[in-house]
Design goal:
mainly alpha; 13 helices; 0% strand
């Protein structure tokens, strides 16, 4: 029987399978489960909840918008559809795994804040823009939440993932500071998103504590982990993978390259771009430390991926310290007892914090153990 509950069950199954991913299948089981959930959600028209204009279009045929049961049911349907949207964007990475949900097909407003959800209060949260070039219209929005901001960021992440999977900088015809490039446009979207965050949603330990007091710390952590991942994945495009001959960040070493004489680099462009990568990795490590003080780190596959990404950036900085000019990922703080079987980079400093967290998570998430193995192999490679 088609039902919202069945969609939710399939999403939970896909989420579990994603966390148990092994290298060879590459998350195929999760991708299939989430795909089935999306098809069922589309059959149930969960993406058209706010397109209803007549009593027969609303859940259970109720016409009164003040009916708390109807308000609650509509919000559950929205959240279920956005659950599909989030996992669709997370798993649609790599060639051959395209997204199934297009933003222009979503006629639902973003999730409301938790207190409005608990009290079944009708609010206006706004919708995702219909295209990546369209700005969100927030004039009538009267409710904002970390969750709705997270979904807006997921939309941007989907574009970054698509860009990276398609070849990233190899698809560009102009240097990255040119406004015609996809890189520049995506970077602008991230900057606008950052600038639009209310003060209480920005990254700081004090803000984390505020959200923790309102049982919203998990959404807050997810928001900032994804924000950091997005910065790393976008700006890594112009950092050489093995910069042996580089004195510091100076753009890619393989074609297409952009010589100083021919293109007249904007002052500090390469250094600023590289710093986004290392600063974002350090922010993820700081989030880990903040959460682990009370053992409150969300056991999410997205958080796991963020920790792995930070650990890899730290490993890169260890082997090529000239690239991390402000030494964001450098440190001498001893994190674990000396162990000859573990490389030194994973025993002290920010990288060790990320590595140890992955190691701990590997006891219940197969994907974490896969990441640990890759990090050990990459240390030997570098």
């Amino acid at each position: 029987t088609a039902s919202v509950e069945r969609v939710q069950a399939m999403l939970m199954l896909g989420l579990y399978e994603w966390g148990q991913t092994r290298p060879k299948p590459g998350g195929l089981g999760a991708w299939m489960s989430i795909g089935g959930a999306i098809r069922l959600a589309q059959f149930l028209k969960l993406g058209l909840v706010d397109q209803a204009t007549t009593p027969s279009d609303t859940p259970n045929g109720h016409s009164s918008a003040s009916d708390s049961h109807v308000i609650l049911e509509r919000e559950v349907r929205r959240r279920t559809m956005f659950g599909c949207f989030v996992l669709d964007r997370m798993l649609a990475c790599g060639k051959g795994r395209v997204t199934m949900i297009q933003r222009e097909d979503l006629s639902i407003q973003l999730p409301c804040s938790e207190d409005k959800f608990d009290l079944a209060i009708e609010v206006n949260t706004g919708m995702l823009p219909r295209s990546s070039l369209e700005e969100s219209d927030r004039r009538d929005v009267n409710d904002d939440s970390v969750l709705s901001r997270f979904i807006r960021l997921v939309d941007i992440w989907g574009e970054i993932s698509k860009y990276s999977s398609a070849g990233g900088r190899l698809t560009e015809k102009f240097p990255p500071w040119d406004s015609r490039t996809t890189f520049h446009q995506l970077n602008q979207r991230l900057q606008v998103f950052d600038a639009s965050l209310p003060g209480a949603f920005k990254f700081s330990e004090s803000n984390y504590r505020k959200h923790e007091n309102h049982q919203a710390s998990s959404a807050y952590v997810l928001l900032h982990v994804l924000r950091c991942i997005s910065l790393i994945m976008l700006h890594r495009e112009y950092i050489p993978f093995v910069p042996i001959r580089c004195k510091g960040p100076e753009g890619p070493r393989d074609e297409p390259t952009f010589s100083q004489k021919e293109y007249n680099w904007p002052q500090g462009f390469w250094s600023e771009s590289a710093e986004h990568v290392f600063r974002a990795a350090k922010d993820i490590v700081e989030l880990i430390e903040i959460c682990e003080r009370k053992n409150r780190l969300p056991q999410s596959t997205l958080v796991l991926f963020g920790i792995w990404t930070a650990a890899f950036v730290g490993l890169y900085a260890h082997h090529f310290p000239q690239m991390d000019e402000k030494q964001h990922m450098m440190g001498e703080q001893v994190v674990r007892k000396a162990d000859p079987s573990i490389p030194q980079v994973y025993q002290q400093g920010p990288t060790a914090i990320a590595y140890n967290t992955l190691d701990k998570m590997s006891t219940w998430l197969k994907m974490a153990s896969t990441y640990v193995s890759i990090l050990l192999q990459m240390d030997k490679y570098f």
